[in-house]
Amino acid sequence: MPAHVEQKSQKTRVVQPDPVRKKPLVKHHILLAEDDAEMRSMLALALTQEGYSVIECRNGEELSLCLRESCFQASERVDLVISDIRMPGMSGLGVLATHGQKPRCPPVILMTAFGDAQTRREAGQMGAVAFFEKPFGLDDLIRRVREITPP
């Protein structure tokens, strides 16, 4: 915004616009695991537009590897995991069972197109902080992500 000039009686002064609030320099890092490439890309784009740094994983094995690395390297900090449940190889529940009880494991949001009451209960018992059944509202997911990782 350009500065503008105000004239009051005989004095002229330059008025600078208020500085624009910038997003914080420290971004929250999200691991996103989804085997459907289109869904993964759409979610990653939406999260990135909200100011999050997103690392995409194509399956549970990649997610497990990224979580293992983040537990040992402070520079690879992960603030949140968003994972599909049904993926080839290791499922989202399998990753949660393997890593969920570790001290440095970030909160986990699970999503699935094949959810039922038993799966939801199991996810909650394993420590999932949220559970979304596909299709879900992107705004609902973003709202929950903000609650878990406030700016």
SSE blueprint:
Elements (H helix, E strand, L loop, with lengths): L3 E5 L2 E5 L13 E5 L3 H13 L3 E5 L2 H13 L7 E5 L7 H8 L8 E5 L4 H10 L3 E4 L4 H11 L3
Parallel strand pairs: 3-4, 3-5, 5-6, 6-7
Antiparallel strand pairs: 1-2
Helix pairs in contact: 2-3
Describe it.
With 151 residues, the protein is α/β, with parallel strands linked by helices. It is built from five helices and seven strands. It has a five-stranded parallel beta sheet, with helices on both faces. A two-stranded antiparallel ribbon has the order 1-2. Helix 2 packs parallel to helix 3. The longest helix has 13 residues. The two termini are 25 Å apart. The N terminus is likely disordered.
Return the string of H and E elements: EEEHEHEHEHEH
User: Which percent bin holds the helix content?
Assistant: 25-40%
Number of helices: 5
First-to-last CA distance: 25 Å
**Mean pLDDT metric:** 84
- The main sheet orders its strands as 4-3-5-6-7
Poorly predicted regions: 1-9, 12-24
How many strands, which pairing sense, and closed or not: the largest β-sheet? 5 strands, parallel
Radius of gyration: 21 Å
Query: How many beta-strand runs?
Result: 7
Estimate what percentage of residues fall within beta strands.
15-25%
Structural class: alpha/beta
Overall 3D shape: globular
